[in-house]
Design a protein that fits this description.
By secondary structure, the chain is α/β, with parallel strands linked by helices. The protein has 3 domains: 152 residues, Roll (Ubiquitin-like (UB roll)), CATH 3.10.20; 159 residues, NADH-ubiquinone oxidoreductase 51kDa subunit (Rossmann fold, 3-Layer(aba) Sandwich), CATH 3.40.50.11540; 69 residues, no CATH class. 28% of the residues lie in helices and 19% in strands. The protein is built from 14 helices and 17 strands. Strands 1-14-13-17-15-16 form a 6-stranded mixed β-sheet, with helices on both faces. Helix 4 packs across helix 7. The termini are far apart. The mean pLDDT is 96.
């Protein structure tokens, strides 16, 4: 039987052995909590508290501003210390609510839960929106928007993205092993929104224990199946996963809903379960703290707003001085220069490496080997696109399908000349898309 996969892709060192076998550990923050008002794609949230207010964990502190937006909740009890710009992982200063933690962790009283079977579609979507749930795999797209396609009856496949193909990350793996019922429960909630759909738990085949456990727990579920997809990066990329599971292809202008699919990350699906079945807003997530510079790599249950310094301390500090620190994984994450920043809804990992192999590499002339085109999951020619990007030749960049790049990094990884192909293409895509947006 052919394995479920896509054309292209690579097999980098995965580094998952550093943290995969260590159970999740809850971290209680000690210092101030910082909540950026923009932790999602769309309009920033608007504060509904002011300096000096006392707040409880689970209390809304910022309201969504419009449809494509998401509210923010306090994750500890304490006093609002300030509403001011604070540094975030991207290096920008973002308007944030700062809460002085009182160490009591008092929570609000949550409203009574209504069984999902007794709720209308609109009520379920409203619950998801009110909970502040966004895509927690990194994109940060407000989930209630994704759950509101124009033609919900045409959705035939709901995919729980359990691939976790990014090297070093094991947060989804630990969630699946330790809390599979919440993952399945969240998928059932989503399926309640789409009566014509079937659910698929798509897991890479390097996680046989997860596949066996999920199949055991869903064997009586007529609408849910488990798909073992081939272990390959970027198998967890939305376009590639849809193709691997359903054989349907989408381009950069399309949404998964255009081919009858909804795709959500593991932590997002679990957050939906908590919001609808327990009445709790999004307040924590799993963060993988790992790398050869970390004394005790592991996965932490982190309250959103917790400072990255505290996570490093919980992991035993640095065993060696890190040369490179990345927010996220090595393929699609980005380097950070300061650990004095808060975790957010989209913070999947903190990777600390003793060697910065990318900075040490000296790019040389392209040898026209074609490897970049061979591994590209978007089926474009990265070498050509990078040349157009470097010359600001955006007409040819677009003509030769530069916008189809998913910025996965496969071409830069495989290039024997160590050319920064992805970086050049990514920059050009931003400029071209921004110009298109202006013309609309």
């Amino acid at each position: 039987m052919a394995k479920l996969t896509f054309l292209g892709g690579i097999h980098p060192y995965d580094g998952k052995d550093l943290s995969k076998d260590k159970p999740m550990k809850e971290v209680l923050p000690k210092g101030d909590l910082v909540y950026p008002l923009s932790q999602h794609i769309g309009a920033p949230a608007v504060p509904v508290v002011k300096k000096g207010d006392r707040v409880l964990a689970g209390q809304k502190i910022a309201e969504a501003q419009g449809f494509v937006s998401a509210p923010v909740y306090a994750t500890v009890s304490g006093t609002v210390k300030a509403i001011e710009p604070r540094r975030v992982v991207t290096g920008d200063n973002a308007m944030s609510i700062v809460v002085e933690n009182d160490g009591l962790y008092e929570e609000v009283e949550y409203p009574p839960v209504v069984p999902v079977e007794k709720m209308s579609r609109e009520e379920i979507v409203a619950k998801i929106k009110e909970a502040g749930i966004v895509g927690m795999g990194g994109a940060g797209f407000p989930t209630h928007v994704k759950m509101s396609p124009k033609e919900p009856d045409k959705i035939t496949t709901v995919i729980a993205n359990c691939a976790e193909c990014e090297p070093y990350l094991t947060s989804d793996y630990r969630r699946m092993i330790e809390e599979p019922e919440k993952l399945i429960g969240g998928l059932k909630v989503i399926l309640h929104l789409f009566p014509n759909a079937k659910g698929v738990l798509a897991v890479e085949d390097n996680k046989p224990d997860c596949i066996a456990l999920l199949r055991k727990l869903t064997k009586e579920e007529e609408r849910i199946s488990v798909a073992a997809v081939k272990t390959k990066y970027p198998q967890g990329s939305e376009r590639q996963l849809i193709y691997a599971v359903t054989g349907r292809a989408i381009n950069y202008e399309m949404l998964p809903a255009d081919v009858g699919c909804i795709v959500d990350n593991v932590d997002t699906v679990v957050a939906i379960c908590r919001a609808v079945n327990e009445g709790k807003p999004l307040m924590n997530r799993i963060v993988t703290v790992t790398g050869d510079a970390v004394a005790n790599p592991q996965n932490f249950i982190v309250r959103i707003g917790t400072n990255y310094h505290e996570l490093i301390e919980e992991a035993g500090g640095f065993c060696k001085e890190p040369e490179k620190i990345i927010s996220g994984g090595p393929m699609m994450g980005f380097g950070i220069f300061d650990l004095d920043v808060p975790t957010t809804k989209t913070a999947s990992a903190l990777l600390c490496l003793t060697h910065d192999d990318v900075s040490a590499a000296e790019p040389s002339a392209c040898i026209n080997c074609g490897r970049c085109a061979e591994v590209c999951p978007g089926r474009v020619v990265p070498k050509l696109l990078a040349e157009y990007a470097e010359r600001y030749d955006f007409e040819n960049f677009e003509k030769y399908n530069g916008l189809e790049c998913c910025e996965c990094g496969c071409c830069s990884y495989i290039c024997p000349a160590k050319r920064p192909l992805t970086q050049a293409i990514k920059s050009a895509r931003k400029l071209v898309l921004a110009e298109k947006k202006k013309k609309k």
